[in-house]
Write a structure and sequence with these properties.
By secondary structure, the protein is of the alpha/beta class. It contains 8 helices and 7 strands. The strands form 2 sheets. Strands 5-4-2-7-6 form a 5-stranded mixed beta sheet. A two-stranded antiparallel ribbon has the order 1-3. Helix 5 (112-122) runs antiparallel to helix 6. The longest helix is centred in the first third of the chain and has 17 residues, at 8-24. The protein is elongated and about 55 Å long. 26% of the residues are buried.
Length: 186
């Protein structure tokens, strides 16, 4: 770990350990990862993340396994959390792909398009990495104008969630990336 953070290498060590403990307890589990973890694991644009934002079915037995892993790896008790549930309520659709399959554990991650829509939906200021991540994803997807970004946002979240914060966020991205767009009037 780097300063209490989970690196990509450490993430996979932890997931291998989780898979082993799941097998020992005859449990199969699917985890959908989001946020900084997905950006780190799928796109290598982060060296580490402070926690794992994920969705998964829980049980007392699984909670015990997760607590054991936290202790084994000296992680915070919230090292894997489901705080992402609230923002995901605003999505119309998800586009998840199997990222890794272990024996008893499957890890899913959203497509780059879905991640872009989620970053715009969040539109959080620094120290969050939403702006940096959105710019990376726009370049990764080879999007040449913000009209196409808005189409992606509409596909996953819907225009009703394109509030003032998101419009300001997109205006800054358009200027920063020198993309063709009509600036939103706020």
């Amino acid at each position: 770990m780097i300063n209490g953070k989970i690196t990509k290498k450490r993430f996979f060590e932890i997931m291998e350990c989780l898979d082993k403990k799941l097998a020992e307890n005859n449990i199969e589990l699917s985890i959908n990862i989001y946020g900084g973890t997905a950006m780190m694991v799928c796109f290598d644009i982060r060296s580490a993340t402070k926690d794992i934002d994920a969705l998964f079915d829980t049980s007392p037995q699984l909670n015990n396994i997760l607590s054991d892993i936290a202790e084994m790896y000296d992680l915070d008790s919230e090292w894997i959390n489901q705080a992402i549930k609230e923002p995901l309520k605003h999505l119309k659709t998800e586009d998840l792909k199997v990222l890794y399959k272990f024996n008893n554990l499957k890890i899913f991650a959203p497509s780059a398009e879905q991640m872009l829509a989620m970053k715009i939906l969040s539109s959080r200021p620094e120290p969050y990495k939403d702006f940096e991540d959105a710019e990376f994803l726009i370049q990764y997807l080879k999007i040449d104008d913000l009209d196409n970004v808005i189409k992606i946002f509409d596909k996953y979240a819907g225009r009703k969630y394109l509030g003032d914060r998101q419009k300001i966020f997109l205006n800054y991205i358009g200027k920063d990336l020198n993309k063709r767009c009509e600036e939103f009037k706020i």
